[in-house]
Amino acid sequence: MLALHLITFLLLSPALSATITTTSSGHAIPFPHYEHLNIKQSIASTTLRPLSKTNNTAVKLHLLHRDKLPFHRHKDHRRRFLARMQRDSLRVAAVLRRTSAAVYEAADFGAEVVSGMEQGSGEYFVRIGVGSPARSQYMVIDSGSDIVWVQCQPCSQCYHQSDPVFDPTDSASFSGVSCSSTVCDRVENSGCHAGRCKYEVSYGDGSYTKGTLALETLTVGHTTVQNVAIGCGHMNRGMFVGAAGLLGLGGGSMSLVGQLGGQTGQAFSYCLVSRGTGSYGSLEFGRSVLPVGAAWVPLLQNLRAPSFYYIGLSGLGVGGTRVPVSEDAFKLSESGDGGVVMDTGTAVTRLPSAAYAAFRDAFLEETANLPRAGGVSIFDTCYDLNGFVTVRVPTVSFFLSGGPILTLPARNFLIPVDERGTFCFAFAPSPSDLSIIGNIQQEGIQISFNGANGYVGFGPNVC
Protein backbone atom coordinates (compact mmCIF):
# COMPACT_ATOMS: atom_id res chain seq x y z
CA MET A 1 0.00 0.00 0.00
CA LEU A 2 1.31 3.43 -0.89
CA ALA A 3 2.39 5.46 2.12
CA LEU A 4 0.82 8.89 2.49
CA HIS A 5 3.95 10.98 2.84
CA LEU A 6 5.18 13.69 0.49
CA ILE A 7 4.57 11.66 -2.65
CA THR A 8 4.83 13.59 -5.89
CA PHE A 9 3.31 12.65 -9.25
CA LEU A 10 4.62 14.55 -12.29
CA LEU A 11 1.67 14.84 -14.65
CA LEU A 12 1.12 15.32 -18.38
CA SER A 13 3.20 12.27 -19.24
CA PRO A 14 1.87 9.80 -21.85
CA ALA A 15 -0.63 7.28 -20.49
CA LEU A 16 -0.03 3.55 -20.70
CA SER A 17 -1.49 1.81 -23.70
CA ALA A 18 -4.78 0.09 -23.04
CA THR A 19 -4.81 -3.63 -22.33
CA ILE A 20 -8.11 -5.50 -22.41
CA THR A 21 -8.45 -8.47 -20.09
CA THR A 22 -11.24 -11.02 -19.80
CA THR A 23 -13.05 -12.64 -16.90
CA SER A 24 -15.01 -15.86 -16.52
CA SER A 25 -18.78 -15.70 -16.33
CA GLY A 26 -19.39 -18.26 -13.55
CA HIS A 27 -22.88 -19.16 -12.33
CA ALA A 28 -25.58 -16.97 -10.88
CA ILE A 29 -26.09 -17.03 -7.13
CA PRO A 30 -29.54 -16.74 -5.56
CA PHE A 31 -30.63 -13.36 -4.32
CA PRO A 32 -33.69 -12.41 -2.24
CA HIS A 33 -36.93 -11.65 -4.09
CA TYR A 34 -38.28 -9.38 -1.37
CA GLU A 35 -36.91 -7.32 1.48
CA HIS A 36 -38.22 -5.02 4.17
CA LEU A 37 -37.88 -1.26 3.88
CA ASN A 38 -37.51 0.36 7.27
CA ILE A 39 -39.31 3.69 6.95
CA LYS A 40 -37.26 5.48 9.59
CA GLN A 41 -33.88 4.05 8.67
CA SER A 42 -34.09 2.06 5.46
CA ILE A 43 -30.77 0.24 5.32
CA ALA A 44 -30.23 -2.93 3.32
CA SER A 45 -27.23 -4.77 1.92
CA THR A 46 -26.25 -4.96 -1.73
CA THR A 47 -26.39 -8.37 -3.37
CA LEU A 48 -24.01 -9.21 -6.22
CA ARG A 49 -23.12 -12.11 -8.35
CA PRO A 50 -19.29 -12.15 -8.09
CA LEU A 51 -17.01 -12.63 -11.09
CA SER A 52 -13.67 -12.00 -9.41
CA LYS A 53 -12.30 -11.65 -5.91
CA THR A 54 -9.46 -9.69 -4.32
CA ASN A 55 -8.57 -8.52 -0.85
CA ASN A 56 -6.03 -5.74 -1.50
CA THR A 57 -6.47 -2.35 0.11
CA ALA A 58 -6.01 1.27 -0.91
CA VAL A 59 -5.77 4.62 0.81
CA LYS A 60 -9.13 6.38 1.09
CA LEU A 61 -10.32 9.97 1.39
CA HIS A 62 -13.78 11.08 2.46
CA LEU A 63 -16.64 11.75 0.04
CA LEU A 64 -19.45 13.86 1.44
CA HIS A 65 -23.06 14.48 0.53
CA ARG A 66 -23.84 18.17 0.17
CA ASP A 67 -26.38 18.13 2.99
CA LYS A 68 -23.47 17.55 5.38
CA LEU A 69 -21.73 20.76 4.28
CA PRO A 70 -21.99 24.18 5.96
CA PHE A 71 -24.02 25.71 3.14
CA HIS A 72 -27.36 27.47 3.33
CA ARG A 73 -30.06 24.98 2.37
CA HIS A 74 -33.78 24.45 2.36
CA LYS A 75 -35.14 23.26 5.71
CA ASP A 76 -38.30 21.77 4.23
CA HIS A 77 -37.66 18.29 2.82
CA ARG A 78 -40.25 18.55 0.04
CA ARG A 79 -38.98 21.93 -1.21
CA ARG A 80 -35.44 20.61 -1.13
CA PHE A 81 -36.47 17.51 -3.04
CA LEU A 82 -38.38 19.44 -5.72
CA ALA A 83 -35.46 21.81 -6.25
CA ARG A 84 -33.12 18.86 -6.53
CA MET A 85 -35.31 17.16 -9.14
CA GLN A 86 -35.50 20.36 -11.17
CA ARG A 87 -31.72 20.57 -11.21
CA ASP A 88 -31.51 16.87 -12.00
CA SER A 89 -33.64 17.39 -15.10
CA LEU A 90 -31.21 20.10 -16.22
CA ARG A 91 -28.31 17.72 -15.64
CA VAL A 92 -29.95 15.01 -17.74
CA ALA A 93 -30.59 17.50 -20.54
CA ALA A 94 -26.92 18.46 -20.45
CA VAL A 95 -25.80 14.80 -20.57
CA LEU A 96 -28.11 14.10 -23.51
CA ARG A 97 -26.76 17.09 -25.36
CA ARG A 98 -23.17 16.06 -24.84
CA THR A 99 -23.73 12.42 -25.82
CA SER A 100 -25.49 13.41 -29.02
CA ALA A 101 -23.26 16.30 -30.12
CA ALA A 102 -20.33 16.00 -32.49
CA VAL A 103 -18.04 18.30 -30.49
CA TYR A 104 -17.22 17.86 -26.82
CA GLU A 105 -16.01 20.11 -24.07
CA ALA A 106 -13.74 19.45 -22.43
CA ALA A 107 0.53 6.21 -7.18
CA ASP A 108 -2.62 5.34 -4.92
CA PHE A 109 -4.14 8.08 -2.90
CA GLY A 110 -7.63 9.22 -2.05
CA ALA A 111 -10.00 11.65 -0.39
CA GLU A 112 -13.11 11.76 1.75
CA VAL A 113 -16.27 12.38 -0.20
CA VAL A 114 -19.35 14.37 0.84
CA SER A 115 -22.85 14.27 -0.73
CA GLY A 116 -24.40 17.23 -2.53
CA MET A 117 -28.10 16.62 -2.21
CA GLU A 118 -29.45 20.06 -1.56
CA GLN A 119 -27.89 22.78 -3.70
CA GLY A 120 -26.97 20.92 -6.84
CA SER A 121 -28.02 18.00 -8.95
CA GLY A 122 -27.13 15.40 -6.33
CA GLU A 123 -23.46 16.33 -6.48
CA TYR A 124 -20.91 14.74 -4.22
CA PHE A 125 -18.00 16.69 -2.80
CA VAL A 126 -14.38 16.02 -1.96
CA ARG A 127 -12.05 18.28 -0.01
CA ILE A 128 -8.61 18.83 -1.52
CA GLY A 129 -5.81 21.37 -1.24
CA VAL A 130 -5.05 23.75 -4.11
CA GLY A 131 -1.71 25.55 -4.52
CA SER A 132 1.41 25.96 -2.38
CA PRO A 133 0.80 26.34 0.47
CA ALA A 134 -2.34 24.28 0.02
CA ARG A 135 -5.72 26.03 0.40
CA SER A 136 -8.45 23.54 1.28
CA GLN A 137 -11.41 23.64 -1.09
CA TYR A 138 -14.65 21.67 -1.54
CA MET A 139 -14.80 20.32 -5.09
CA VAL A 140 -17.71 18.67 -6.92
CA ILE A 141 -16.70 15.29 -8.33
CA ASP A 142 -18.03 14.58 -11.81
CA SER A 143 -17.43 11.31 -13.66
CA GLY A 144 -18.72 12.91 -16.86
CA SER A 145 -16.36 15.92 -17.04
CA ASP A 146 -12.84 16.21 -18.39
CA ILE A 147 -11.43 19.27 -16.69
CA VAL A 148 -10.38 20.32 -13.20
CA TRP A 149 -11.17 23.94 -12.33
CA VAL A 150 -11.53 26.30 -9.40
CA GLN A 151 -12.89 29.81 -9.03
CA CYS A 152 -10.00 32.28 -9.03
CA GLN A 153 -9.25 35.83 -8.04
CA PRO A 154 -9.69 38.32 -9.54
CA CYS A 155 -13.23 37.08 -9.96
CA SER A 156 -15.37 39.23 -12.24
CA GLN A 157 -18.33 36.85 -11.87
CA CYS A 158 -18.37 34.15 -9.21
CA TYR A 159 -21.11 32.24 -7.42
CA HIS A 160 -21.00 31.81 -3.62
CA GLN A 161 -18.63 29.19 -2.26
CA SER A 162 -18.03 28.12 1.33
CA ASP A 163 -14.23 28.59 1.23
CA PRO A 164 -12.34 31.78 0.28
CA VAL A 165 -11.91 32.06 -3.49
CA PHE A 166 -8.48 30.81 -4.55
CA ASP A 167 -5.94 33.57 -5.21
CA PRO A 168 -3.17 32.34 -7.57
CA THR A 169 -0.84 35.16 -6.46
CA ASP A 170 -0.63 33.46 -3.05
CA SER A 171 0.57 30.16 -4.54
CA ALA A 172 4.25 29.52 -5.21
CA SER A 173 3.44 26.62 -7.54
CA PHE A 174 0.93 28.38 -9.82
CA SER A 175 2.17 28.66 -13.41
CA GLY A 176 0.15 29.98 -16.36
CA VAL A 177 0.04 27.93 -19.56
CA SER A 178 1.19 29.59 -22.77
CA CYS A 179 -0.85 29.48 -25.96
CA SER A 180 1.87 27.47 -27.70
CA SER A 181 1.83 24.73 -25.06
CA THR A 182 0.68 21.25 -26.03
CA VAL A 183 -1.45 21.36 -22.88
CA CYS A 184 -3.44 24.23 -24.37
CA ASP A 185 -3.99 22.19 -27.53
CA ARG A 186 -5.64 19.44 -25.47
CA VAL A 187 -8.41 21.72 -24.18
CA GLU A 188 -11.64 22.04 -26.15
CA ASN A 189 -12.72 25.63 -26.82
CA SER A 190 -9.29 27.00 -25.88
CA GLY A 191 -8.19 30.44 -26.96
CA CYS A 192 -5.37 32.90 -26.50
CA HIS A 193 -5.06 36.29 -24.82
CA ALA A 194 -1.82 38.13 -24.11
CA GLY A 195 0.10 34.91 -24.67
CA ARG A 196 -1.91 32.96 -22.10
CA CYS A 197 -4.12 29.95 -22.81
CA LYS A 198 -7.81 30.64 -22.22
CA TYR A 199 -10.46 28.00 -21.63
CA GLU A 200 -14.23 27.97 -21.63
CA VAL A 201 -16.51 25.10 -20.62
CA SER A 202 -20.30 25.16 -20.95
CA TYR A 203 -22.31 22.39 -19.31
CA GLY A 204 -25.43 22.73 -21.42
CA ASP A 205 -27.72 23.68 -18.51
CA GLY A 206 -26.64 27.30 -18.29
CA SER A 207 -23.63 26.49 -16.09
CA TYR A 208 -20.21 27.56 -17.33
CA THR A 209 -16.68 28.43 -16.31
CA LYS A 210 -14.28 30.74 -18.18
CA GLY A 211 -10.73 31.72 -17.39
CA THR A 212 -7.07 30.88 -17.88
CA LEU A 213 -5.36 27.51 -17.93
CA ALA A 214 -2.55 26.87 -15.44
CA LEU A 215 -0.35 24.18 -13.93
CA GLU A 216 -0.81 23.84 -10.19
CA THR A 217 -0.14 21.52 -7.27
CA LEU A 218 -3.07 19.66 -5.70
CA THR A 219 -2.95 18.06 -2.27
CA VAL A 220 -5.12 14.99 -1.78
CA GLY A 221 -4.92 13.80 1.80
CA HIS A 222 -1.19 13.94 2.55
CA THR A 223 -0.25 13.34 -1.07
CA THR A 224 0.91 16.16 -3.35
CA VAL A 225 0.28 16.01 -7.09
CA GLN A 226 2.36 18.48 -9.09
CA ASN A 227 1.77 20.06 -12.48
CA VAL A 228 -1.94 19.39 -12.69
CA ALA A 229 -3.52 21.33 -15.56
CA ILE A 230 -6.42 23.23 -14.02
CA GLY A 231 -8.81 25.92 -15.13
CA CYS A 232 -8.53 29.13 -13.12
CA GLY A 233 -12.08 30.43 -13.52
CA HIS A 234 -12.62 34.18 -13.43
CA MET A 235 -16.21 33.99 -14.73
CA ASN A 236 -18.34 31.15 -13.37
CA ARG A 237 -22.02 30.43 -13.12
CA GLY A 238 -24.21 27.44 -12.40
CA MET A 239 -25.21 24.65 -10.04
CA PHE A 240 -21.92 24.50 -8.15
CA VAL A 241 -23.00 26.75 -5.25
CA GLY A 242 -20.92 26.02 -2.15
CA ALA A 243 -18.11 24.26 -3.98
CA ALA A 244 -14.94 26.00 -5.16
CA GLY A 245 -14.98 24.18 -8.48
CA LEU A 246 -15.13 20.80 -10.16
CA LEU A 247 -12.88 17.75 -10.10
CA GLY A 248 -13.33 16.08 -13.47
CA LEU A 249 -13.02 12.27 -13.36
CA GLY A 250 -14.12 11.56 -16.94
CA GLY A 251 -12.43 9.44 -19.56
CA GLY A 252 -10.64 12.28 -21.39
CA SER A 253 -6.97 13.26 -21.18
CA MET A 254 -7.61 16.49 -19.24
CA SER A 255 -9.51 14.91 -16.34
CA LEU A 256 -7.52 14.18 -13.21
CA VAL A 257 -7.69 10.47 -14.02
CA GLY A 258 -6.45 11.15 -17.56
CA GLN A 259 -3.61 13.38 -16.40
CA LEU A 260 -2.38 10.83 -13.88
CA GLY A 261 -2.39 8.29 -16.70
CA GLY A 262 -0.04 5.34 -16.33
CA GLN A 263 1.08 6.43 -12.86
CA THR A 264 -2.19 5.19 -11.41
CA GLY A 265 -3.20 2.72 -14.11
CA GLN A 266 -6.06 5.08 -15.09
CA ALA A 267 -7.87 3.61 -12.11
CA PHE A 268 -10.10 5.14 -9.47
CA SER A 269 -12.98 4.06 -7.29
CA TYR A 270 -15.66 5.69 -5.20
CA CYS A 271 -18.29 4.71 -2.68
CA LEU A 272 -21.11 7.24 -2.37
CA VAL A 273 -22.40 7.77 1.14
CA SER A 274 -26.02 6.78 1.65
CA ARG A 275 -28.55 9.48 2.43
CA GLY A 276 -29.49 10.08 6.04
CA THR A 277 -26.48 8.31 7.56
CA GLY A 278 -23.61 9.74 9.55
CA SER A 279 -20.98 7.85 7.56
CA TYR A 280 -18.64 9.08 4.85
CA GLY A 281 -18.12 7.76 1.37
CA SER A 282 -14.70 7.40 -0.21
CA LEU A 283 -12.75 8.33 -3.32
CA GLU A 284 -9.55 6.51 -4.29
CA PHE A 285 -7.03 6.92 -7.08
CA GLY A 286 -4.56 4.34 -8.32
CA ARG A 287 -4.75 0.62 -8.79
CA SER A 288 -7.27 0.40 -6.01
CA VAL A 289 -9.22 -2.79 -5.81
CA LEU A 290 -12.47 -4.08 -4.47
CA PRO A 291 -13.24 -6.36 -1.54
CA VAL A 292 -14.19 -10.00 -1.84
CA GLY A 293 -17.44 -10.35 -3.78
CA ALA A 294 -16.73 -7.76 -6.48
CA ALA A 295 -18.19 -8.26 -9.94
CA TRP A 296 -16.36 -6.86 -13.01
CA VAL A 297 -17.92 -5.95 -16.33
CA PRO A 298 -16.35 -4.37 -19.44
CA LEU A 299 -16.44 -0.63 -20.04
CA LEU A 300 -17.81 0.27 -23.45
CA GLN A 301 -16.33 3.07 -25.54
CA ASN A 302 -18.39 5.68 -27.32
CA LEU A 303 -16.08 7.73 -29.52
CA ARG A 304 -18.78 10.36 -29.81
CA ALA A 305 -18.79 10.90 -26.03
CA PRO A 306 -15.39 9.77 -24.69
CA SER A 307 -15.83 11.53 -21.33
CA PHE A 308 -18.60 9.20 -20.17
CA TYR A 309 -18.31 5.69 -18.75
CA TYR A 310 -20.62 3.28 -20.59
CA ILE A 311 -21.47 -0.22 -19.37
CA GLY A 312 -23.50 -3.06 -20.83
CA LEU A 313 -26.98 -3.69 -19.43
CA SER A 314 -28.95 -6.70 -20.63
CA GLY A 315 -32.10 -6.37 -18.56
CA LEU A 316 -33.99 -5.43 -15.40
CA GLY A 317 -35.50 -7.51 -12.63
CA VAL A 318 -38.30 -7.04 -10.08
CA GLY A 319 -38.94 -9.51 -7.27
CA GLY A 320 -36.50 -12.02 -8.72
CA THR A 321 -38.25 -12.08 -12.11
CA ARG A 322 -36.73 -10.61 -15.25
CA VAL A 323 -38.86 -7.84 -16.75
CA PRO A 324 -39.86 -8.50 -20.39
CA VAL A 325 -37.67 -5.81 -21.95
CA SER A 326 -35.53 -6.42 -25.04
CA GLU A 327 -31.79 -6.23 -24.52
CA ASP A 328 -31.70 -3.98 -27.58
CA ALA A 329 -33.29 -1.23 -25.47
CA PHE A 330 -29.94 -0.73 -23.72
CA LYS A 331 -27.48 -1.29 -26.57
CA LEU A 332 -24.92 1.30 -27.62
CA SER A 333 -25.19 1.61 -31.40
CA GLU A 334 -22.21 1.83 -33.74
CA SER A 335 -23.14 5.46 -34.38
CA GLY A 336 -22.97 6.25 -30.64
CA ASP A 337 -26.69 6.40 -29.87
CA GLY A 338 -28.31 4.77 -26.84
CA GLY A 339 -26.27 2.81 -24.34
CA VAL A 340 -25.99 3.05 -20.57
CA VAL A 341 -23.91 5.73 -18.82
CA MET A 342 -22.88 5.71 -15.17
CA ASP A 343 -22.96 9.30 -13.91
CA THR A 344 -22.19 10.71 -10.46
CA GLY A 345 -23.83 14.03 -11.36
CA THR A 346 -27.27 12.61 -12.21
CA ALA A 347 -29.36 11.70 -9.17
CA VAL A 348 -32.20 9.56 -10.59
CA THR A 349 -31.69 6.68 -13.03
CA ARG A 350 -33.27 7.30 -16.43
CA LEU A 351 -34.41 4.48 -18.72
CA PRO A 352 -35.82 4.53 -22.28
CA SER A 353 -39.58 5.10 -22.07
CA ALA A 354 -40.70 1.61 -23.10
CA ALA A 355 -38.22 -0.08 -20.74
CA TYR A 356 -39.19 2.23 -17.90
CA ALA A 357 -42.91 1.56 -18.40
CA ALA A 358 -42.42 -2.23 -18.27
CA PHE A 359 -40.13 -1.89 -15.24
CA ARG A 360 -42.55 0.37 -13.37
CA ASP A 361 -45.57 -1.80 -14.17
CA ALA A 362 -43.77 -4.88 -12.83
CA PHE A 363 -42.98 -3.01 -9.61
CA LEU A 364 -46.59 -1.79 -9.32
CA GLU A 365 -47.90 -5.32 -9.71
CA GLU A 366 -45.69 -6.52 -6.85
CA THR A 367 -46.68 -3.60 -4.59
CA ALA A 368 -50.43 -3.61 -5.22
CA ASN A 369 -51.05 -4.01 -1.49
CA LEU A 370 -49.38 -0.68 -0.61
CA PRO A 371 -51.43 2.55 -0.51
CA ARG A 372 -50.70 4.76 -3.51
CA ALA A 373 -50.01 8.50 -3.52
CA GLY A 374 -50.05 10.99 -6.36
CA GLY A 375 -46.99 11.56 -8.52
CA VAL A 376 -44.33 13.97 -7.31
CA SER A 377 -42.09 15.95 -9.67
CA ILE A 378 -40.51 13.51 -12.17
CA PHE A 379 -41.86 10.46 -10.30
CA ASP A 380 -45.16 8.88 -11.38
CA THR A 381 -45.11 5.94 -8.94
CA CYS A 382 -45.42 6.97 -5.29
CA TYR A 383 -46.80 5.47 -2.08
CA ASP A 384 -48.37 6.86 1.08
CA LEU A 385 -46.43 5.09 3.82
CA ASN A 386 -47.42 7.42 6.62
CA GLY A 387 -47.83 5.39 9.80
CA PHE A 388 -45.83 2.40 8.53
CA VAL A 389 -42.74 1.24 10.40
CA THR A 390 -41.61 -1.29 7.80
CA VAL A 391 -42.99 -2.42 4.46
CA ARG A 392 -42.24 -5.51 2.39
CA VAL A 393 -41.08 -4.56 -1.10
CA PRO A 394 -39.80 -6.57 -4.09
CA THR A 395 -36.12 -6.45 -4.94
CA VAL A 396 -34.94 -4.46 -7.95
CA SER A 397 -32.03 -5.75 -10.04
CA PHE A 398 -29.80 -4.74 -12.94
CA PHE A 399 -28.78 -7.63 -15.20
CA LEU A 400 -25.33 -6.57 -16.39
CA SER A 401 -23.81 -7.81 -19.64
CA GLY A 402 -21.68 -10.90 -19.14
CA GLY A 403 -23.77 -12.35 -16.33
CA PRO A 404 -23.47 -10.28 -13.11
CA ILE A 405 -26.71 -9.37 -11.36
CA LEU A 406 -26.68 -6.24 -9.20
CA THR A 407 -29.55 -6.23 -6.70
CA LEU A 408 -30.13 -2.85 -5.06
CA PRO A 409 -30.87 -2.12 -1.42
CA ALA A 410 -34.45 -0.92 -0.90
CA ARG A 411 -33.27 2.57 0.05
CA ASN A 412 -31.73 2.89 -3.44
CA PHE A 413 -35.05 2.63 -5.28
CA LEU A 414 -37.83 3.67 -2.88
CA ILE A 415 -37.01 7.10 -1.47
CA PRO A 416 -38.80 9.66 0.75
CA VAL A 417 -39.86 12.86 -1.04
CA ASP A 418 -41.43 14.75 1.87
CA GLU A 419 -41.85 14.57 5.63
CA ARG A 420 -45.38 13.14 5.45
CA GLY A 421 -44.41 9.58 4.57
CA THR A 422 -44.56 9.78 0.76
CA PHE A 423 -42.07 7.44 -0.90
CA CYS A 424 -41.49 7.20 -4.66
CA PHE A 425 -40.02 4.66 -7.07
CA ALA A 426 -36.73 6.42 -7.86
CA PHE A 427 -36.58 5.89 -11.62
CA ALA A 428 -37.79 8.03 -14.50
CA PRO A 429 -38.21 7.75 -18.28
CA SER A 430 -35.46 9.13 -20.50
CA PRO A 431 -36.41 11.48 -23.35
CA SER A 432 -34.02 9.53 -25.60
CA ASP A 433 -32.59 6.04 -26.06
CA LEU A 434 -29.81 6.83 -23.57
CA SER A 435 -29.98 5.24 -20.12
CA ILE A 436 -28.26 6.92 -17.17
CA ILE A 437 -27.54 5.12 -13.89
CA GLY A 438 -27.76 7.90 -11.30
CA ASN A 439 -26.09 8.36 -7.94
CA ILE A 440 -29.15 7.36 -5.87
CA GLN A 441 -28.91 3.87 -7.35
CA GLN A 442 -25.10 3.86 -6.84
CA GLU A 443 -25.18 4.75 -3.14
CA GLY A 444 -23.50 2.34 -0.74
CA ILE A 445 -21.89 0.32 -3.54
CA GLN A 446 -18.13 0.50 -4.08
CA ILE A 447 -17.59 1.20 -7.76
CA SER A 448 -14.13 0.97 -9.33
CA PHE A 449 -13.03 2.00 -12.83
CA ASN A 450 -9.95 0.47 -14.39
CA GLY A 451 -9.43 2.52 -17.53
CA ALA A 452 -6.20 0.78 -18.56
CA ASN A 453 -7.86 -2.64 -18.60
CA GLY A 454 -11.30 -1.39 -19.64
CA TYR A 455 -13.40 -2.70 -16.76
CA VAL A 456 -15.71 -1.39 -14.03
CA GLY A 457 -16.22 -3.30 -10.81
CA PHE A 458 -19.14 -3.38 -8.36
CA GLY A 459 -18.45 -4.28 -4.75
CA PRO A 460 -20.73 -5.06 -1.79
CA ASN A 461 -22.02 -2.42 0.60
CA VAL A 462 -18.84 -1.18 2.31
CA CYS A 463 -19.35 2.59 2.56
Helix content percent band: 10-25%
Mean pLDDT: 79
CATH topology of the largest domain: Cathepsin D, subunit A, domain 1
Structural class: mainly beta
CATH C-level class of the largest domain is Mainly Beta
Counted by DSSP, the helix tally is 5
Spans of at least 5 consecutive residues with low confidence: 1-30, 40-59, 101-107, 116-122
The CATH superfamily of the largest domain is identified as Acid Proteases
By CATH, the architecture of the largest domain is named: Beta Barrel
Protein model, in words:
This protein has 463 residues and is mainly beta. The protein folds into two domains: 30-55 and 291-463, Acid Proteases (Cathepsin D, subunit A, domain 1, Beta Barrel); 57-288, Beta Barrel (Cathepsin D, subunit A, domain 1). It is built from five helices and 33 strands. It has a 20-stranded mixed beta sheet that branches. A hairpin with a 2-residue loop joins strand 10 (191-193) and strand 11. The chain is globular and about 65 Å long. 55% of the residues are buried. Mean pLDDT is 79; it is low at 1-30, 40-59, 101-107 and 116-122.
Keyword list:
DNA binding, globular, five-stranded antiparallel beta sheet, protease, Peptidase_aspartic_dom_sf, 463 residues, 20-stranded mixed beta sheet, Cathepsin D, subunit A, domain 1, mainly beta, disordered N terminus
